[in-house]
Amino acid sequence: MSMITVQLGQCGNQVGGQLFSTISNDIDGKQHMVSSKENKEYGDQVVQRFFNRVDGHDIIEARAVMVDMESKVIAKTCLEAKKGGKWKYPDKQQYCQKRGSGNNWAHGYCIHGPNVKETVMEMVQKEAEKCDRLSGFLSLLSLAGGTGSGVGTFINESLRDEFPHSFIMNQVVWPYNTGEVIVQNYNAVLTLSHLYQTADAIVVMENDHLHKICSRLLDIKKISFKAINHVICHKLSSLFLPASSSDDNISQNDLGMILHHLVGHPEYKLLTIRNIPQMSDRSMEFSSFHWPGLLKHLRQMLVADAAMEEGIDWQVNAGDETPRGSVQHNRSLANMLVLRGKDVISTDTSSYLDPKLYTSWTDPELGFSKLIQPRAFNSYEKCAALISNSRSPIRPLNHIIDKAWNMFAARAYVHQYTQHGLNEEDFIDGFVTLEQVLASYKKL
Ligand code: GTP
What percent of the chain clears pLDDT 90, i.e. is strictly above it? Predict the structure, then answer.
């Protein structure tokens, strides 16, 4: 099964470029710990999923369509891929114009969106025709700008109309909490509320969390978007690189299977990904890992709603009736654990079947799924990813709704949106949709 990646705006394009590099570096990795035959099969599967082999050419092509309203980032992303010499973007599958959306969702959605639709959808159609079996789309965007968010929302709606039977998963980058663009929370509310109607799932990644992972776990001193995007792509690859169900060892983690396990109800579409271990190459040389320790830490990251293993609150217990201070244990609707590397088959994961980890109406046997892949990933001898549909998004969602509502109550900057054709009711609809989502998650 193949997946088409749609890269939207500066962030979406930069993340996309890094994603294909992470994946292609991984298939070339030497420390794979399986036989060369198994490694070859794995590589072929990865290529089929993310890349297209072109007859007569050695270099594989990403199954991707790139959209931005400025040409700079797309040009740079294509060039970096080409220079790497392992993969490239397909020719003429890039759409750009001369002017960005000025961090204005309405400009992206109401003006650029309809103008670019026909050409972009032709590109998508062309990409879809290259797939023997298309499982769906992964679209990458940030919530805060104007192009990824506004044009991205419009393109996602067009994808839904033109590919009604394909799955659509969005990966959205949440803005830093403070000090970026004043209207970032408007853009985020408008994007999320619209995507909630079209996407099958939305994977949430917060720049603040990713930044902390870079500084505390990866020991990076000067943190760039490139470093942050490495973390994002480690997370995405740990979910999407081939792995099979531990139940039958056959079912593969294509989009349909992932969604089937994690998004059983249309009210609950927000997913988060936690990984362990994550460390700098230098530290890795001196570390050895055991599954029980890794899985215990990962479980506590879930329970205490922590983005990383460092500084987790061990006082929070699954099943605590009363919150300790403002901390309450995190409950899930569904969890998918993906184990990669050594001894994955015999690893005991029964602690993830604890009913206290789940909301009262979830049967843990149905809410929990486990995928395994004996091939090592990204030089980690053992590594695990936990993809959860849990209460985690409540805090960041609350934050953007509150901030956006305070501005909206004073009608601050609203004219910048209405001048492009958006109405005040469109804002209200956005708030109502997200308040409903929030209320549903609070019931977990
Ligand atoms: P316009 O600039 O308005 O045309 O829209 P755009 O969609 O191109 O904007 P952009 O993607 O730059 O959105 C801004 C938001 O994305 C801010 O929250 C930035 O922190 C974040 N951002 C931009 N580039 C990156 C990136 O490469 N990685 C990450 N993680 N975040 C990014």
Answer: 82
